[in-house]
Amino acid sequence: MTSIAVIGVGMGEPDHLSGQAVAALNTVDVFFALDKGAAADELLHLRHDLCRRVITSHPYRFVDVEDPPRDRSAADYGRAVADWIAARAAALGEAIRHELGPDERGGLLVWGDPAFYDSTLRVLDALSDPVDVEVIPGVSSIQMLAAAHRISLTRVGRPVQVTTGRRLAARGFPPDCDDIVVMLDAACAFRDVDHAGVTIYWGAYLGSAHQILISGELAAVADEIAAARAEAKLRRGWVMDTYLLRRGS
Ligand SMILES: C[S@@+](CC[C@H](N)C(=O)[O-])C[C@H]1O[C@@H](n2cnc3c(N)ncnc32)[C@H](O)[C@@H]1O
């Protein structure tokens, strides 16, 4: 069966790679790249650079896979994502059939860790020809955020919830969890939650030379974060940010 390594590459720096990831990178013949867009171009460049720096013992090549468009205005968000995953699986399956030799191993480099808001494993599950998948974990932006602010995400015996900006905007701060990590928030949903007693730990471009960190009482820093985010996006053309909202002490 075709073998595919799914390798978490952290924030793209060689220092973020585990020994297991470096070893796996050195076994891959063909890396398939599926992303598009301003951030994707820069992140793709980072991945090429990463491979150049850490692959020392194995010839490899990159194959760009045409990323199907995603309907971001669809009323049924779940349906739109399912359609997009199916289209991505069709495109990737086609690339694997045409580009990977019978004795070659494929690889997909995943930003951060494949366990958090990444479609790679679902796309591989949806391939029409099954493949043998090995997953190598990476350092997620979630861990980068906690380390950069020198905090633990979990308070003693308490849970943390990982969620999206879209969900926070739709449902507000969950009543039964006081610590939430928010990703994929292009609309600064933190501005609309009840600020009372809430602390925010925010980070953009985590783990890179461009990293920006702001923390404090949400009421005091919400506008500062929104302005820093807007300014960063204007300057670089894209921004990726993650934050922890913590209610109470
Ligand atoms: C598609 S998800 C991928 C998450 C990734 N698998 C991970 O483990 O970090 C993209 C979201 O991850 C977060 N993210 C990824 N890289 C980041 C970075 N360098 N700094 C801050 N947030 C980041 C942002 O919330 C962004 O919207």
What does it look like?
The chain is α/β, with parallel strands linked by helices and 249 residues long. The chain has 2 domains: 3-139, Cobalt-precorrin-4 Transmethylase, domain 1 (3-Layer(aba) Sandwich), CATH 3.40.1010.10; 142-247, 2-Layer Sandwich (Methyltransferase, Cobalt-precorrin-4 Transmethylase, Domain 2). Helix content is 35%, strand content 22%. The strands form 2 sheets. Strands 3-2-4-1-5 form a 5-stranded parallel beta sheet, sandwiched between helices. A 5-stranded mixed beta sheet has the order 6-7-10-8-9, with helices on both faces. Strand 8 (198-204) and strand 9 (212-217) form a beta hairpin. The protein is globular, with a radius of gyration of 19 Å.
Brief summary of the model shown:
The protein is of the alpha/beta class and 249 residues long. It is 35% helix and 22% strand.
Radius of gyration: 19 Å
Mean pLDDT: 94
Adjacency order of strands in the biggest sheet: 3-2-4-1-5
Please write the CATH class name of the largest domain: Alpha Beta
Q: State the secondary-structure class.
A: alpha/beta
How do the SSEs run, as a string of H and E?
A: EHEHEHEHEHEHEEEHE
**Topology, number of strands:** 10
CATH H-level homologous superfamily name of the largest domain: Tetrapyrrole methylase, N-terminal domain
Largest sheet: 5 strands, parallel
CATH topology of the largest domain: Cobalt-precorrin-4 Transmethylase, domain 1
Instruction: Quote the distance from N terminus to C terminus.
Output: 52 Å
Shape: globular
Task: Please state the oligomeric state of the protein chains shown.
Answer: single chain
Strand fraction: 15-25%
Which architecture name of the largest domain does CATH use? 3-Layer(aba) Sandwich
Low-confidence stretches: none
Q: Tell me the number of structural domains.
A: 2
Approximate helicity band: 25-40%
Bound molecules: S-adenosylmethionine
Helical stretch tally: 7
